[in-house]
Amino acid sequence: MKNKKSSAPQEAETRASRCPDNTAFKQQKLPAWKPQLTIASVLSTFFLTGAFCLSVGVSLIVAANSVREIQIDYSDKCSDCSKLRENSSNWNIECLCSVNFTLAEDMLGDVFMYYGLQNFYQNHRRYVLSRSDEQLLGRNVKVQKTYCAPFATYQNGTPMAPCGAIANSMFNDTIDLSYNVNSSVIQVPLLKTGNSWWTDKNVKFRNPESHNLSAAFAGTARPPYWHKPVYLLDEEDEKNNGYINDDFIIWMRVSAFATFRNLYRRISRKGQFTDGLPAGNYTFHISYNFPVSMFKGKKYMILSTMVWSGGSNPFLGIAYLVCGAAATLTGFIITAIHLKLRKKKTYFQRH
Q: 283 pairs with which residues across the strands?
């Protein structure tokens, strides 16, 4: 009996110890601001929010409409090369095509060149996971046990560098731009570096440490769909090779939608192109390597200028307009309800 009596206070102490301390914070007794919502404060909040969103939305749409842009579909215009690429055994045969177009007006300022793909789904779960971040950071070139399968190693055991379905499907068309004026052809200078994000170039992608890249990637092989190894992606600029190649970095940032565009080049503003691209006749010279007919896709080349809000995408402006209209409409509805209830209150007070 004594043991039972002594155990009871212990159990009570154990249960009491689980309660929060008797402090203002843990007992939620701290002073708090409880706003008194009046009709004036509520209506002013809705109307001011609506006015702000509507003004920002109009500004964004006006800015987006001022962007000069031209889009050219070359997937059908290079039909001969497209048919050649349908047969994978012709991968080593070079196929060139040209697409002529005309700029009706000058494209002033910085001009950006994009490639666009339609009906190419990069948001498939297994596709998104098919990469090795450890390998892309240069820590382990010969990665095997990763999500990269079946693009991790060849049948003889040679590891792929880089591995994975994303890297293997990298866009590899080579595109140049020329300006045709007075029966002469002027090559438009293009910048192929400085197009990726700083964090990608300096943090997320690193080459393995070695005295040269070819030695760093010794014992590895290029992905099956590539024409050259990763350390020779840019034969003109040694600093733009390996995993820190700008084209490779941009491709590895997968898109959430089936139709997307990626930055390919920037127009170098020098010579005749100091102010941008003058109006006139131009030609895209394309080395066709990326087949799209097998998934019923299309390929585009896009030339576009930029404004303070970015490119010609009106989505953000439309979103602000919708939010502003909704806030303003809500303000008017609350005003109508308030006036109606006030009239009823006045009526009952008089009678």
A: 100, 178
CB 152 within 8 A of CB 230: no
Q: How far is CA 159 from CA 214, 217, 327, in A?
A: 15, 10, 57
Q: What span, in angstroms and rounded, lies between the C-alpha atoms of 58 and 307?
A: 15
User: What per-residue confidence (pLDDT) applies to 293?
Assistant: 85
Backbone phi, psi, residue 303, to 5° = -110, 130
pLDDT, tens digit (0-9, with 9 covering 90-100), for 32-55? 888 888 889 999 999 999 999 999
Helices (DSSP H) in 87-223: which residue ranges? 125-129, 133-136, 165-168, 198-199, 213-216
Strand order in the sheet with 298-305: 69-73, 298-305, 111-118, 260-267, 190-191
Q: What is the DSSP letter of 13?
A: H
* pLDDT per residue as tens digits for the range 341-350: 887 766 555 5
Nearest 5°: the CA angle 301, 181, 101 is 25
Q: What are the Cα distances from residue 334, in Å, to 92, 109, 342, 346?
A: 70, 47, 12, 18
| Distance, CA of 121 to CA of 325 (rounded, Å) | 34
Q: Can you list the positions of beta strands (E) in the chain? A: 69-73, 96-103, 107-108, 111-118, 174-181, 184-187, 190-191, 260-267, 276-277, 280-287, 298-305
What is the enclosing helix (H) or strand (E) of 342? helix 315-350
Q: How far apart are the first and last CA of the chain?
A: 77
Global pTM reads: 0.80
Let me know: does 171 contact 115? Beta carbons within 8 Å: yes
